[in-house]
């Protein structure tokens, strides 16, 4: 990518950061459930989750559309390119930068350090492929995870707001599990297999493979938390009485 292309991409990322900043201010003006208003520690978390939900809906549907509109991309994961995919990666890079700054500037780094690690991995990986123009399709496949995140975020919002409709939480619980398999575990497993088998273990390939393997470990850890919390609560350890109001974690 030439200097002009890099400058345009940087402008797109910056514009995305500004968009999510505006969404954050909008979330501040929205009414909050009584259960959130009564616990000051939950206010930041609620607002942050609303912005995360907006990104998940937009990026998840965008990733689906990009692959549906250009299915031939799946045959060239290393060098395939589409304008839609490129814009999506710039858009999501802006979100991860915005969310990182939101966590740091609101003094949530200690409770949300796992998210900071994840965001650092995502930003560095996305910037590398924006600059080189390679592995764009892999990024779009990874962003299918945002479809799963829609239901994961709804789960947390329902828990925080204490909505008196347990059937709604139960329904979302099972939909969330299916989506976790379909849009998080399956794409991640396929990309891990692809990178280990076909991608050279040097330079950018080695860097992305290492990121992918670390992300595998994080996803499996989150999955085990989800299973313990929603399906095997008797296996949970050390959670009784724990105050998680300020934490960003979606699984607790």
Automatic annotation (TrEMBL):
The keyword Repressor does not apply. Residues 41-235 form the TLC domain. InterPro entries: TLC-dom, TLCD. One of its GO terms (cellular component) is plasma membrane. SMART domains: TLC. Keywords: Membrane, Transmembrane, Transmembrane helix. It comes from the Eukaryota. The chain crosses the membrane at residues 6-27, 48-68, 137-158, 178-196, 208-227. This is TLCD1 protein. It comes from Pachyramphus minor. The gene is Tlcd1.
């Amino acid at each position: 990518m030439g200097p002009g292309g890099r400058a345009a991409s940087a402008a797109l990322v910056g514009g995305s950061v500004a968009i999510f900043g505006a969404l954050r201010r909008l979330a501040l003006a929205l009414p909050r459930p009584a259960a959130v208003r009564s616990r000051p520690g939950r206010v930041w978390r609620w607002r942050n989750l609303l912005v995360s939900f907006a990104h998940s809906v937009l990026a998840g549907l965008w990733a689906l559309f990009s692959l549906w509109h250009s299915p031939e991309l799946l045959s060239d994961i290393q060098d395939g390119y589409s304008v839609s995919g490129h814009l999506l990666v710039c858009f999501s890079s802006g979100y991860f930068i915005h969310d990182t700054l939101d966590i740091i500037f609101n003094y949530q780094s200690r409770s949300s350090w796992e998210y900071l690690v994840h965001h650092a991995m995502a930003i560095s990986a996305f910037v590398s492929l924006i600059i080189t123009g390679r592995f764009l399709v892999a990024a779009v496949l990874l962003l299918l995870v945002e479809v799963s995140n829609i239901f994961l975020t709804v789960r947390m919002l329902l828990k925080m707001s204490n909505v008196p409709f347990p059937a709604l939480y139960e329904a979302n619980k099972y939909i969330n599990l299916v989506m976790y398999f379909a849009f998080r575990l399956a794409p991640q497993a396929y990309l891990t297999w692809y990178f280990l088998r076909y991608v050279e273990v040097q330079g950018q390939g080695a860097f992305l493979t290492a990121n992918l393997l670390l992300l595998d470990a994080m996803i499996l850890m989150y999955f085990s938390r989800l299973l313990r919390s929603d399906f095997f609560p008797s296996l949970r350890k050390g959670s009784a009485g724990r105050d998680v109001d300020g934490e960003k974690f979606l699984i607790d």
